[in-house]
Amino acid sequence: MKRLRPMIAKKNLIPSHQFGFREEHGTVEQVHRLVNEVQLAFEKKQYCSALFADVSQAFDKTWHEGLIHKLRSHLSSGYSDILESFLKDRTFYIKQGSEQTDLCPVSSGVPQGSVLGPLLYLIYTADLPTPSSVFTATFADDTVILATGDTAEAASQCLQKAITELERWLSDWRIKVNETKSIHMTFALRRGNCPPVRLNNVEVPHSDTAKYLGMHLDRRLTWRPHIWTKRKQLSLKVRSLYWLLNNRSSMTTQNKLLVYKMILKPIWSYGIQLWGTAAKSHTCIMQRFQNKMLRLVLGAPWYVPEFLLHQDLNMPTVEEEIRRHCTSYCARLMVHPNQLAGELAMDTGEERRLKRLRPSDLFNYA
Known about the structure:
- The protein is an alpha+beta fold.
- The protein has helices at 4-11, 27-43, 64-74, 77-87, 116-124, 152-172, 224-245, 253-269, 272-275, 280-298, 306-313, 318-334, 339-342, 359-365, and strands spanning 47-53, 91-92, 95-96, 99-100, 104-105, 135-139, 142-149, 183-187, 198-199, 202-203, 206-207, 209-212, 215-218.
- The longest helix is centred in the middle third of the chain and has 22 residues, at 224-245.
- The model has no long low-confidence stretch (mean pLDDT 93).
């Protein structure tokens, strides 16, 4: 791995749109790229037709012969021979109780749990077709293709052309996509959905929301579905932890607060650099949850003001968390090694038609 990384970086084998399993590349930056593309289309009153592709058993179904062919074309014979030996002549068996099957050869898949497994998959999928007419974002096997157009029909036609090119590539390299689990989604501030698209001659189901890298996106990017989904998830988690946090618990206040910070807070703070642009009526949902938890931790009665709870526990409010996260996020983007991510921190200076906030606005606000 140490020897391969400099060689791969020098030859630019991993495309810029691939953020998975790469140093200093995170999920938030990739979702930010997608959100930024959609918001630019909103400014132009355009429709966005997006495909969220679901790759079936991506790591388990990597075709060995195809991967070895790509390794030989990109790496020297010494490295490719070692990696070929690493992949071939592997066997497996299934054991149930005292019974077990015969040894069977492993003809596909990268060894999961190995250091080289993720890197080999990135090399295998590095030549994914990326037409200039569409936006492409990949994080390991999580793939999004987005096309924009002045009309819904034009957006879907552009997306369908890219999907047709993708189908040929998938067939050549024996990668299977689950058409029924993939999602076709329309991003637009105008009414109406984009016409359906087909993948492998199967119509992709249309949805008004899509989950990408742990964040729930709706057609208008209001972030309301994401915030409410996280709020429900927090309620279930609090129910399982209530025996530790209630007044009858023998835990100290500091330990209760630690449970909140380590288990509950990361659930809602993930992606705060993006959903922090939501309307105040939405972000207040998380603030009310935090108020409730701090009151539970302290055992404070209802008449104690919320600002005193935050002050006594030295806990920042949700709005302060947005500012803090955006400050560090902006600093990270400014020195990001990937140009596609670094561009997210730049102010384009174009006139804005819409008054809604963008993530880049929070940088200035921070």
